[in-house]
Amino acid sequence: MGVVIEVTGLVKRYSGKLAVDGVSLSVAAGEAFGYVGPNGAGKTTTIRSILGLVRPTAGTIRVLGHDVATDLGAALADVGHLPGEFGLWPQMTGAECLEYLGALQRRPPVRRQELCDRLELAQAELRRQVRLYSRGMRQKIGLVQAFQHAPHVLVLDEPTEGLDPVMKERFVGLLAEHRAAGGTVFLSSHILSEVEQTTERVAVVKAGRIVATGATADLTGERVHHCTLVLKHPLGAGELAIAGISGLASDGLLHRFEFRGDMEPLMRRLGTLAVQEFVCEPEHLAETFFEIYGEPGEGRTR
Q: Please, are residues 244 and 265 in contact by the beta-carbon 8 Å criterion?
């Protein structure tokens, strides 16, 4: 199928305020693509533009080979969507909401019962009015309606908001099955561990622009490794002066440091030492994110 989502030069202004500034990205068939950034960075506006919910100020968007501006029905025919602020009709029951949303999708909800079972949405709960639902219950309804017609493309904005840890794991399992069947995922989230766990390529957006993009592993594991080394015998001065090591802190036989670059020279050097224990953990996506944005809490707006 090739490229499933293609965004070129997307610009969106609201009353003169620039929300998205020249975003270009592509998502291949069968790929899980993460789109991360703090609240207010332009993630949701990008998604709404992809789905034809807002009209771009400039740029073009194609989904499943169809131009969203001129052929929206065909573009969204095989797409499941969960919005970031998923709302339901409070006077309707959960079952009525699923039925109504399923009718809008114009494809049979072939997975509805299976998904309700897996997300523990019992029939008794589905017969209750949505106004009585918890945040997590409403989110489960949102997930079912996104997956229920077995779409090829899933566009998910903050999909685990309000879910408990067990339901989050079940969601991850649903995504893994979707990918194994050849499905495509575009996932936007501010929960960086979630993006790291479920995507293979990621773009980081800041103030409406993509400021970093690449394989998730390239933005994490190949950048910085946090290392802890315990030796059986003390080292002499300068014995750990190896290219790539920084922030070395030693306390007797215990040495902590960061390492960047090719690990082979480091491992060769450690092979000459009396090593009792060596632990080396790759940098997480969260650290890359904060390296781009600054310290946690900086530059975040609602």
A: yes
β-bridge mates for residue 184, sequence order: 153
**Parallel/antiparallel/unpaired status of strands 201-206 and 245-251:** unpaired
The answer to whether residues 66 and 75 touch, using CB atoms and an 8 Å cutoff, is yes
Give the Cα separation of 85 and 75 in Å (integer): 22
Angle among Cα 57, 3, 214 to the nearest 5 degrees reads: 85
Beta-ladder partners of 63:
5, 66
The residue with tokens 């649903």 is: 174
Residue 202 β-bridge partners: 34, 214
Q: Which residue has the tokens 């809490």?
A: 297
Segment 104-155, tens digit of pLDDT: 887 899 999 999 999 999 999 999 999 999 999 999 999 999 999 999 999 9
E strand or H helix at 6: strand 3-14
Which burial class, exposed, middle or buried, applies to 274 when counting CB atoms under 10 A from its CB (0-12, 13-18, 19+)? exposed
Summarised one tens digit per residue, pLDDT across range 34-64 is: 998 877 889 999 999 999 999 999 999 999 9
The pTM (predicted TM-score) of the whole model is 0.76
CA-to-CA distance for 47 and 53, rounded, in angstroms?
9
Tokens of 150: 């077995």
Residue appearing with tokens 């305020």? 17
Which positions ≥6 away from 87 have C-beta within 8 Å?
none
What superfamily in CATH does domain 3-213 come from? P-loop containing nucleotide triphosphate hydrolases (3.40.50.300)
The Cβ of residue 16 has, within 10 Å, a number of other Cβ atoms equal to 5
Alpha-carbon distance 202 to 292, whole Å?
Answer: 14
Residues in the chain: 302
- Identify the burial level of 186 via C-beta atoms within 10 angstroms of its C-beta, where 0-12 means exposed, 13-18 middle and 19 or more buried: buried
Contact status, residue 282 vs residue 294, Cβ threshold 8 Å: no
Q: Which two tokens stand for residue 160?
A: 């685990």
